[in-house]
Each structure stands twice: as C-alpha cells, then as structure tokens.
Batch of 2 targets.
Target 1
Amino acid sequence: MKLLNEYGIAFALLGAVLAALVPGIASAKAVSMGGVAGAGVITEDPAQFGKVLILQLLPGTQGIYGLLIAFITLSQIGVLGGSSDISFVKGLLYFAACLPIVIVGYSSAIKQAKAAVASINVVAKRPDQFGKAMIFPAMVETYAILALLISILAVNGVSGLNI
Amino acid sequence: MALQKMQRIYIYALKKDKDRILELLQRRGIIEVRNMLKEDKIFRREDIGHAKESSEKNVAAVSQALEILNSYVKENKSLLSSLKGRKELPEEVYASFGEKLESVVEIAKRIITLSKKIAEEKAELIRLQNQIEILKPWVNLDIPLNFKGTKHTAGFIGTLPKEWTLEEIYEKLAAYMPLDVEIISATKEQTCIFVLCTNTFKDNVFETLRAMDFILPSISLDKAPAEQLKDFEKQAEEIKGRINTYLEEMKSYDKSREDLYFLLDYETIRIEKYDVIGNLLQSKNVFIITGFIPEKDAKHIEEELTSKFDLAVEVTEPKNKDQVPVLYKNNGFCEPLEGIVNSFSPPGKGEIDPTMVMSLFYYMLFGLMLSDAGYGFLMAVGCAFALYKFRNTMERPMKNTLKMYLYCGISTIFWGIMFGSYFGDIFDVVGTTFFGVEKVPVIPPLWFFPVEKPMLMLTFCMAVGILHLLIGLAMKGYQAIKHKDYKSLVYDAVFWITLLISCVLLLLSMEMIKNILGINIELPAYAVKAAGILAIISAAGIILTNGRESKNPFKRILKGLYALYGISGYLSDVLSYSRLLALGLATGVIGSVINKMAAMTAGGIFGPVIFTVIVIIGHALNIGINALGAYVHTNRLQYVEFFGKFYEGGGTLFKPFGMHTKYYKIKE
C-alpha cells in the first residue's frame, strides 16, 4: 500500500490532464464545425458576422470548463506549488471527480456544435430569428454545465476528505 | 409593464389633399396602415406598381453605384461611427431634393458606366500586354512576323522548344543547303529562329523543322516586331491614360456620396408612401385611410388634421378579431430589454408585457454569472462613455443595447463586490508579487468566496431560481385575473405555487437535504405538518383540475396525473439555475489562472511589463468569452425557465407609416 501511495498523485494528475485534454479537443472540433458553417453564411451576407460568431463560440465553452476543472485539481493536488502528498485512494477519487466533465464535456460539445450549425442555418435564412436560434445550442450546454458542477463539487469535496 | 392601448382609426378625406395629408402622417409616424374595409363599386384600391417601380430602379442603381464608388474610393468611417447614428438634415433639403433627383440618378448611372469602361479598358490592356510579351523575343528581327519568303526563297519564322545553337540547327538542315538560319533569341525554354531556304527545298525544310517541334508564332503581324512593339507600347500607354482619367472622374464623385446616400433614403420614403397609397380606398373625389393608432396620439392627430384639412376622423376600439400591433410602454430601466423580449416574440393577443418583471431578474442573473467587479466596471464605464459622448445623435436601438449592458455592468460590479472578485484576484496577486503584501485577500468579499463555499453558492442560486419560477407562476395568475379567468388563476397558478412552496418547505425539513446544502434551519413542527397537508391538497387539486378540457372523467384524471408529473420539470428547472454557480466560478477561476500565469513571469526588470501584457490580453479574452456566456445563459433562463411558465408571444410589432431612413434623419 505504501508503494501504491506514491502513485496517488499520478492518477490525480491524469484526471486533471484529461479534463483539459478531452473537452478541449471536442471544443476545438465543435468550434471548427461552427466556423465552417458560419463562413458559408458570411460569403452571402457579411452583415450576419456578429450573430454567426456568437453561435460558433457557444460550443467552445466545454473546453473552458475542462480547463477550469484541470486548474482546480492541479491547485488542490499541489502540482502548482505546495505539498503533493496524495494517497492512492485520494488520487483515484480525484480522477473519478474529473470524469463527468471529461466525458460529458466531450460528447456535449460535439452535439452542441450540431445544434449550433443548424442555428447558423436559421440565421442565414432568417436573421431576425437569432434570439430563438441561440437557445437551441444553449439547451445542450445545460448538461455540460451540470457535469461541470458535479466535477467542481467533487474535486472540492475530495480535498476535504481525510483518507 | 404595459403596452400602449391601440385604437382603430379611419380618416375620410378629399383627394385634392391626399399628398399633403399623407406627407403629414408620414412625418408624424404614428399610424400603422392596415386594410380594414373591402373594395366595392365606388371605392377601389389604386395600382401603384408602376410608380413604385421607378423608385425601386433608382434604389437598385444607386446601391450598385455606391458599392462601386466605395470599392474605388474608400469612405472615411471611424470605428465609432455606428454609435453616432444618422445625420440630421434640415427639412428644406428634403423638400428640394426632388429637383436634384434626376441629376443624382445620372451620377449613379455614370458611375456604373465608368466602372464598366474601366473594366473593358483593363481587359484590353491585358490583351496588349500579352501580345507585347509574345513579341519581345522577336524584337531583333527586322522583318515582319508574317514574312513567308520572296519569289525564289521561302522563309520560316517560329520557335523551337528548349535552347538550340546555330550548329545544331545547321546540322539538322545540312541536306538542304543553301539556306540561312538566324537565331533571334534563345532562352532555356525556347529558341526563336528565322530560316531562309530556296523554294525547291521548302517542303523538306518545313518537314524537318516540324520534326524538331517547330511552332509558328501565335500572332501574325505586318510590321517588323520592333516597330510593332513600339506601337503596342504606345497603345498601352494610351489605355493607361484613359483608365486614369476614368479613375479621376470616379474620384470626383466622392463629393456626391452624400447625395447618393440621401437619394436612397429619399426613395425609401417614397416607396413607403406608395405602399400606403396602394392600401387606400379611393373614389373619384374621396379617399379613406384605415389603420391602428396608439390611443394617446389619436386625439392629437385628429385635432391637427381637422384644423388643417376638410376631413372626418373616426376612432373606434379594436374589434375582437383584430391582430392589434404591439407598442411597448416602459420606463428607461426596462425599456432596453424590449429587444430581448422581441427576439423571443412580442406579446401575443391578450398577453401582458413581461419586460418589467423580466428586467429585474435579467440584470441580476447577468451580474451573478459574470460576477466580477473589474469586468463589470469596464462594461459599465465603456457603455456610459459611449452613451454620454453620442447622447444627442445615437439611435434608439443602439442606445437601448448600450443601456442594457450598462445596467448589466452595474449589477456585475455589485455581485463582484459581494463575492470578492476583482479581475479574478488581481489585487492579491499584484500585492504579493510586487509589494510583498502577506495578508490576503486584500479586499475580502462582502459576502463570501464562492470557490470556498460552493454549496452555499449553489443553495443561493437555487433559491434565486425558485423565486424566479414562482414569479413566473404569479405572472400567469396575474394574466388570468386580467382575463377574469378565475378558474385558471386557482388551478394553474395558485395550486402550483402552493405545491412548490410546500414541497420546498418539506425538503428543507429533511436531514439529508440540510446536510447536502450545509444549511441549518429548524422549521417548527406545525409548519412542516401544514406544508405536508397543503402539498397533498394542491397535488389533489392539480390532478382533479389540470385535465379540465377533457369531458371524460377518467381521461380527465389521467391528464391531471400527467400534469402533476410536471413537478419533475420544476426540479430540472431549479437545477438549471446551478449554471449561475458554474458560470460565476468559471469567470473567477479563469481570471485567477491568468493572474497566476502572469505572476510566474513577474521576476526581473521586464517582469512588470510582461505581467501587464499577459494580464491585459488574458482578461480581455476572459471578459469576452464570459460576457458572451452570461448573455446567452441569461437569455436561456428567461426564455425557457421563466417564459415557459406564462408567456407565449406571437404578436407583431407596431410598424407605423413613417420615414424609415437609413442614413439621414429629417429634422422637423
């Protein structure tokens, strides 16, 4: 067990790194999908740039949520300074705590991008319906936010555990 | 929280006054013209297609001309010009513009012709330049390119691929002496040659040359290349000169730009008027205008019209089947949010205007999500500055947008102070890195740090959510009262409000919930008991009444049960407000990450400079992405959670007959 305990920090770091990696990859892909659709709209009607840009950016937030969890975890486990004395169990717990944003962040970013692309098409045809079009991708984001919430609470909670 | 009351207006007037009356109404801009009467044998609508067409043609020509002009002569437009609003023009300019109209249209047409000419000349220039390129290798040849030979000799002028020397060519042609070969020019790609042989060997020489991939030049000219080249170059110069004069002329129209823009506005006004004329019922001497007018303006316009013209005005209440247009009546605090309501949908028939109630929460929710005093300060100051600088000329929609962000900014400052966030934790970082401050936080939060007590923050967010939802339900009740639909008031609003409040109380009495939320409230036993009873009564009420549109009692109960199942929807609605916590934390934590990264570089002489650069760029990005998030998710909470409880929309906005110009405002 003592030997294992030396690997606690590795699992915790793995969780943090995945939280930055996976949703980041998904958001990059998602934003590029929006960009491709948006560029098409701009060739026809450059005046819609502002609206299209907002829709393109919507699925970009998952990457930021992932970064957020990564950062909180890094600072909790002492990688950014302080003591990094993490037991094996605690390391695994940190890893698990990161999973919601890793998995939901990935999937929701891609799904949200699809809704965003559809909304960009709405703006292309009916720019006055932007307010409604914006809501569809925002609905998808709810689940990323819920995952972020659980990850934040879990990471914070784990740091308080005495194991 | 209200809409302007609308009335039907009928104006019966003499045709001889038609133009003046219409002009007056257009200038006042308070009547939305609608067809309310049918055509009959005497009163008919006029076909205005023809008159409108000429205006539309002018608009098309001038728009095209402006586009061309802008591509040749850049317009001086500052970054802030969109804030400035339309330029004001005295009325005389508008009145006298009719005389100028033709000449401005001529200018537009001239600009279009010029651009065509420039394009043609440029194409010609390119053609010439190509020929010059082809001729250049031949410049040393002193006979014309189409030289075919004399009486006894045959001449071949053309090119061979790759580089050839004189010996190599002679070698190939050795059998057909006597002949003369001249290399005019040679490069790696091609060798230009002139071969003169006797007529007897003409065909053999040609065959041999062909076998060497000999090609005749692609142009055939009567003059010697050098001479021809001079001609071409002269022509090219002439074309360039012509293009320049055209360009000069194009530039001279820069000063006509204002006129062109004004013509667009002028024709827009005319087209608007033609559209109205097409809707008028006209007999031989009389015409009738029908439409909607806000009640507050009706009296005034009636007086003005009757004092100036011989006519009759009739104002009546709108009929039940009328789709009455929507015009808001709000104070300066909630007016900015009319746009947000509109982008959902303006209030439908019989609905109340939700702007006022929404505004209170809108600013609050936005502030909670951005929740950084520094960012809020930047937003508020930026908007206030623009509002002050362009206070006289700014257009209303722009003014409203800026005002909305000003209030959102102020709310953000408030919540930033409550939660102790100033550009993340910039004061702490600057203090500890540069000034050796040890006591952090430098400015403690007025309430608490959400990062340190996320559960408390979550509880607060959900409490805000429950309040928001309850107010949504209360609005439904209020709407029911307004329609005197007291059944709906009790069944759809009161029962649900009671059920929600009692459920919340019951949850708060449970140990588990108290532990999760980390709150410590001891509810008195009788309150819990009362809540339980109320919950059962209201749930039963909902089961019995929410399916009331079905006559079949069995179906009715089933529908009622399904409606009660909607309580799970309330659960997800409340949880949805946890985004306030998540987005608020995101702003603060990313802000601190930026500060931390900046602090890592802070050592050395250039440290403070690098620190400042990172801080500025980082926070600029953070404010952008988080303000966007706050805006989108505030809208979502309003549209989905709040409006979902009582508001459907579906109305159309009031579009008065007026002067909807784009570039100029005509002063009274």
Target 2
Amino acid sequence: MTRTLSAPVTVAFDYTRSTGPVIGRFLTGLRDGQIVGGRTSEGKVVVPPPEFDPVTHEAITDFVDVAPVGTVTSWTWVPEPVKDQPFDRPFAFALIQLDGADVPMLHALDVASPDEVSTGMRVQVRWRAERVGAITDIEAFEPATDAGPTGVEALGTNPVTGVVVPVSLDYLYAASPEESAFYRGLNEGRILGQRCPTCQKVYVPPRSACPADGTPTAEEVEVSQTGTITTFCVVNVPFLGQKITPPYVSAYVLLDGADIAVLHLILGVPAAEVRMGMRVKAVWKPREEWTYSLENIDHFEPTGDPDAEYDTYKQHL
Amino acid sequence: MRDVAVVGFAQRQMPEFDGSPTCVELLVPLLAECYEQTGWTRRDVGFWCSGSSDYLAGRSFSFVQAVDAIGVIPPVNESHVEMDLAWAMYEAWIKIQTGEVDTALVYAFGKSSAGVLRRSLSLQLEPYTMTPLWPDTVSLAALQARVGIDAGVWDKAAMAEVANRSLTDAEKNEYSIRKGGSSVEELLARPMYADPLRKHDCSPVTDGAAAIVLAAGDKAREVREKPAWISGLSHFVDPMSMGTRDLTRSPSAARAAAGVDLSGVEVAELHAPFSHQELILRRELGLADDVRINPSGGALTSNPMFSGGGIRIGEAAARIWSGEISKAVGHATSGPALQQNLLCTLEGRS
Amino acid sequence: MSKQPAAVVGVGQTHHRAKREDVSMAGLCREAMDRALADANMSLDDIDAIVVGKAPDLFEGVMMPELFLAEALGAAGKPLLRVHTAGSVGGSTAIVASSLVQAGVHKRVLTVAFEKQSESNAMWALSVPLPFNMPVHAGAGGYFAPHVRSYIRRSEAPTHVGAIVAAKDRQNALKNPYAHLKNPDTTVESVLASQMLWDPIRYDETCPSSDGACALVIVDEDTAAASPNPAWIHGTVMRSEATTAAERDQVNPQASRDAAAALWKQAGITSPIDEIDAAEIYVPFSWFEPMWLESLGFAEENGGGWRLSESGATAMDGRMPVNCSGGVLSSNPIGASGMLRFGEAALQVRGAAGEHQVDGARKALGHAYGGGSQFFAMWVVGSEKPTN
C-alpha cells in the first residue's frame, strides 16, 4: 500500500484578458498580418511594444511597423514539447530580431532538426490563415525564402482589445498520509479520526499537524456516523464548476466523538426545516459506488431525534 | 541597523515527495529541527513568514494550511510571500529591523513534481504574448545560454566544469538528489537536451521545504557560539522581456552586489538553476578566483522551488556556525533567466 | 529600538468596475499608482522600492505576475516584493511597505495591490474541486454564511441588521467617485427583498466582484515634512490562526481579538469607539460589520455590534462612522480591497476623502481579514505624529 492516495486534477480556465491600448495595437496588427513595434524614449523599436517606457515610465504611443522577416539571435531545440506549445513535435524556440526592430522577439521556429538552425539565419513569418489577434496568429517562423513571406489580408476593422488565453494545468494531487487513512476508512464505510497527542482533541479528518499545537494527530478513533448540525447555509447560487444543483444545504456536522465538525450536504428534509442543533446521520451511497472519497457519504439526513441543546455545541461555532 | 543573525536552518529535498502539496507533513519535522537547534519553542518566535506558490500546488490559498505546522493557538504574527524563502527571510529581517520583534522563523515549501514544472513556469511569463506560446523554463534558459556562447562570454566547457564541480561536491550533501561528478570531457560527451543545454546543465525537478531562523543581538548569541551575522542584504529586479535584456548579464545581481560588501567572502552559495547562470553570477558579483562556489553542490544538484534560494543562505550560514569560514554570501534568484536576485552576506564575527 | 516614524503621503485608486476592459493588468496598476504619486507630488524615479500585493494567482492566471509587471510598474532596477496573505493581502502589503520605512531601510516606498477578477471567475478560482473531497463549498459566500448564522444565533440579532449595513454602505458609495456599485435606490427594504443567495446572506448583502487597484506612497519623517497632510502610522498589526481547528471561534476569532488588542496598545488607544473617528473595516458580507465591531472592541461581544449598526451609529454622521467609502460591499477587487481600507483610513485623517470625509477625523482604523477569518491586518493612522 502506498503511503498516500493520489488522483489527477486539472485546473483549467480560458482567461479573458483585456489588453489595454499598447498590447491591443500589437495584436490588432497580427490579426491584420502586420507586426507592430513600439518606439521607446531612447529611440529603440521594441517588439512586442512594451506598455510603458522603460525610462520615462510613460505609456508607449509611438508605433512602428516592422518587417515580417528577420534574423535569429538565439535559439534552442525543444526535443520533448509540452502541451500547448506551438508544435507537438520537436521544434525550435528562437529569439528573432525583425528587420526594423532593435531587439529580438520570442517565437517558435519550424525546422525539422537542430542542424537546420543557426544563429544569424534569416527567417520569415508564417501567418496562420485564421487570425484572431493573438501571438499565435504567427503560426511560427520558418527559414526565409527568396520570395519572402506570403502577404495576408487584414481580417478585421475593429481594434483588438481582448485576448482569450486558455490555461490548463494537470496535477497529480496527493492527500496527506493522515487524510489518506481517512479516505481509506471511508472506502470501508468507516469515519476515522485521530486524536492529537498534545491536546487530546479528535480530528476528523486527521491532520498532519494539529492546528492548535503543531503536533501530528496519531491515535486512530472511529467516530460515530451520527452527529449534530452546528451551523449551515442554504446555497441558492449556481456557479461555474459546481457539482451539486442548488438549492442545497451545506452544513457543519459535529459527529459524536469528534471535536471538529465536517462540512457536508443535508438532504431528506426541506431546506427551510434544517436547524442548528438538528441531529443527523450519514447516508451512504450503495457500496459498489464507494471509492476513497468523502462522497461515499451521499449526504446526511435527520435522525428524527430531538435537537441537541445549544450549550452542547456552541463552542464549535 | 540591528545586528541580526541566521541561527537555525533545516531542509528536506527529494525527487518526489510522497505527500500533500500543502507540505504540512514536511514542515512539522523541519520546524522541530529548528526548535532543537535553537532550544526554543514556537512561543519564542516573534514573527513567521513563509514562501510558496499557488500554481505549484494547483490550487488557490495553498499556503493557508501551512500555519497548522506551527500550531497557531495562540495566534501568531505571520506573513506570506508568493516568493522564494530568501525573500520571506528578507521580510522577517525587515520586521526585526523595525524593532517590533527580536526573532523570526521563516519557511518555504513546494511540491514541484505535482505538475510539469517546466510547463507550469510558463505561467510566470508575460501573459499576452509569451505564455500563449508556452515557452518552458528550460527553453528560456537555453536561449540565454546560447547568447553567451555565441558572444564568447562563456563556452560549453565552462558550463560542463560548473556541472562537474557541482555534481562532485553534491556527493557530500545528503540532500542533493543528483550527484556524482566525472569529468568535463565525459559530461560534454553526453547527449544534448535543449541545445545547447545538456540535462546536467539544468537543475533537476525537486520537491522540498526549508526553514531559517533569525535572531537579533543577544538572542542570537544565546543560540550559537558563532551566529552567522547578516552583514548585508540586498535585492533587485530586472525587466522580464527576453528581447530587451542583455541575456549575458544580470543587472539586478550586479546592483545587489553593489549593495553589500563582498570583500573577504570565502564561500558563495549561488542559486543558479542552470550551469551558465553561475557563470553570469560570478561575473556580476566580481568574485575572486579563490572564492569557493557552491560547496553544497548548489541548485544544479537539487533545486526545490520556493526554498532553493533560501537553502543557499542556510548552507552558507552552516559553514559559519561550524567555524569553517568567517564570511560567506548566499544568493537567491527568481523569474526567467535570472530576472530577480537577492544577496545576503553572512559573517562569523563574534 | 523603536520604529522610525512613517507616513502615507499619497493615496491612489482606480475606478473599480466589474470589468475594466479598457486596461491591461499593468494599466490597472499604473492608474492607481500614478494617482498616488501625483497625490504625493512624486514620480516613479523618486521611489526606492515597490511592494506588490495580490490574492490568488489563479484569479488572473499568472504565476507571480509582479515579475512580468516589473518594468511597467517602474520596479526594474529597484527592490520588488510580492505579498500574498489571502483576502487580508492589501492590508498586509501596506504593512510590509511601511515596515521598509519603519526599519530605516528605505525612505520612499510605493505599494500597489490589485485584482483583475474579470480575467477569470472568482467563484471558480476559489472552489477548484479537490480529489477525494466533497465539493459542497460555494465560493466565499458559501464559506462565510454558516458563520454569519452562528453570529445571529449567538448574539440574538434581528435578521434585518445585515440589510441596514448593506443599505448604509451602498449609500456611502454614492459619495465615492471610485466606487464600483452606484445604486441610489438601495434601501433596507430593497436589500431585504433581494434574493437569498447563501441563506442567511442575501444578494444585496454581498460584495461585488471588481477589477481594481489601490496604491500608497509611504515615506519617512524627513520626506513627510514636505507633505501638507501626511497620515502618520500609529500602529500596525498582523495575526494569523488556522482555517479550522477544534473549538476554534469562527465568529470572533482569537487572532482578530489579539490583533485588535495589540493594535490599540501600539496606538495608545484605550477606548476605540471614543478615540477612532472613522473606521474602514473589511466587510465583504454586511453581517461582518457588527461581527468585527465586537471583535475589534468597538462594542460589547454577543450583541453590542448589531446594536451599534442598527442604531445608525456607523453611518457617516453617526458616533462611529464605518466604511464611509462604501467599503468592500461597494467595491471588491479582492487583492486591493484591504489596501483600499488602509488608504481610505489615510484619506480620512488627511482630510482628503472628499464627499465622504468625516469632519475633523484625526485617527482612523484600516482593517482587513482573509482566508477563513484567520488572517488579520490592521493599522491606525493619525493626522498627528505619534507621541509614543
């Protein structure tokens, strides 16, 4: 048995970026097949244009068209591309100083092997046919030809003011060893806590460090599947990524034998009838659906017993 | 300025940490080690500051659980930077300089292996025109390395020499995750990875955590016979753009060097995640030939994100405590191609 | 050794909106910074160091955005720090910036905090599901609503107090040219009639999601001499505790009480309600006004807070004006929200708060909290140099 449980998790969002006038001008140019640089107070043409002048700190307002052809000032080979890079086969990243610019810009260079790249080589833009106003409107640079890059039509009339940047990151999420014990217990239909050897409080789930004194919780304690709602809210609001359809009651349930409440869902009772102090019990999913998850407990529902006295749980609020 | 010293240091480094991205399980023994070194309890610590990154952990507020490792009843005077341990230490040093507290414990952690590190770090770039191309951190370093090679500022042999020395020194460091030197020739015979970088030119993906303890004046003297006194602490940042920077240089490192007194430094622990970056730093710091560089093996042999810089300071301090040397400098970097740099000089004067 | 005196001589903020589609992240920050610098009669070249604050990087999808922003913020060639302490970050960042001056390390520090929440979605960023867990959380509102319920139960508060606070802050916002929400028709009745989102929290009792930034120029005593109206820093405090712990008081956390006690002691204040002329308290959900009033010592625990709010004492013309700017309830660029509280407190004691100025304010509180009511940052600023 491994020490910890782990599972993949993807954190993904398509970010909607407003560009402001300077980056917007650059991206508008790309959409229309033109590379635009900015002239700084020192007279340098920089691509992409910096938003603010490095010396005067004023916004850049002097824009200059540069050539779609330039010279490689540095390059590297990418033998094992990562997801979302310009190519999923080996390619080069390069710093390319375009004719008319005073400093290089970064982009991909599409060649078959590192033997075909060298510092000082002449390269040209390869435009994407569908251009939206993004750095990826340049599909890549490629070795310069005598004919030069194919000119392209402007694809819009309105200035670009925003760009969508999808960001999707894959992680392997691991639970701590203490949490793993908790999830393994859930896979057996048990709710396991651990007692802190210093303050003697029973933590559910157990903790790598008792937050009161920094000591890892240790002695295993199986707690009851029945407990008291300390406090709760009724969620009426839908939101992105939500897995449970509103309205639903999310409640802190202080299980008998535990010194800290767990957050879970209350069903089997109209939301308006849920009360602080209500006694509830765990309702498990069918056994064949169990995994290493708190979701094995489908929800909590009222036991029908009289409510707990406020004094018995008020120190847990 | 108050006299403040590094009096405690603990570290853990590994290729893959079998634990949660909050690293609480890793922090508990680290803090215990700090208490053991100082004879303190958590209640003797006046200020806490941590460093970590939400994007390394893959979730928002990934640092909030870390305070559990301290034990926070009663609550603590605490802060967090989305930066390396070295800058967390800087914030703590400032706090001590205000006179508000006399002691501080700073820590940092990161589980780099939870994602694809070189890809995750693309999110550190300019988000409109750089990140959409996902230039990975190794590629960016390789572009920098070639600029220097083409300009004749360094060559592949000099880079291999850095790697060979680091791998050799790492054999004596129990925390290094890549070790074993051979020869410049043998290293140069190994296959190219991100041309012109070979794998040994790049720091390995490392998980880990580290903690540093600071104390002022007599508090420091109570802890150690030879506290590592902070005689200078300076940090600066450069623009990010790979186009406008002279990639063979690091102006922010040079500025930081001008802000401290490097004369008499015997050991320099330089946070150079790529071999050529050590060469840049040595030049910007103007280190004499007899300065021992990275006797720990340095970042090329182990580089836990968000503690890798602070570990350099801790390693330097440990050599002062032992009496082996009397002056050292620790360096930390952040951002692509040495964008941000911090220097901390440590002295063993009594 | 004691702290070097430090003062705020420049305050700047953006016009806060749901979406500031006219600016980039750099443009947003510079809008606040340039206003703060103009207020301080300085330029970026006068600044020694820059401290950036921001809440989770997932909001904008940039890891450590201060690095790519460095040049645009004028930080290139200077020391740059990035603070992140959850929702309290704007306050913590201002405290770190002031400590650079109080330590005697720098003379003129510029600090900026921002959030461009429209680049993503705050509810998403705060509720990314974790494997093995039960995704019952529903953003910040879902997190705090149960604790508001606990407060109501514990203090036996009438349920309309939250609406009184919301209506008051929204009316105050009409006097603040930078505020995000400008709804002149908001009344206690209209708040009570708004949808129950996270029962017991109604729609109009919640903060908006805003794009915005705030910047402060904090300087040493010599530099402050050139300012006609410096806001002197009389005390700064940060305190943290755990998100969850056995028997942790989540309504009135110990870290909050400890922070307040330490703050009043530092600032030489024995009766906050009598000595503080204006308070900018971090109130993202209206019920947190009475909750924090009690925790901060403006009112008795278990009911003094709601009685104060209900009585009208926290209105601009009341005994203890709270959030004259309209507060977090009217503008909430999360990373900047704490610094806005700190900055608005400074504006009050500088007599520079414009239409929402409390007459003759001499001492003011800036307050921020974050995480699960676990990180606290506070300061007291005054029109006079501190005597202690």
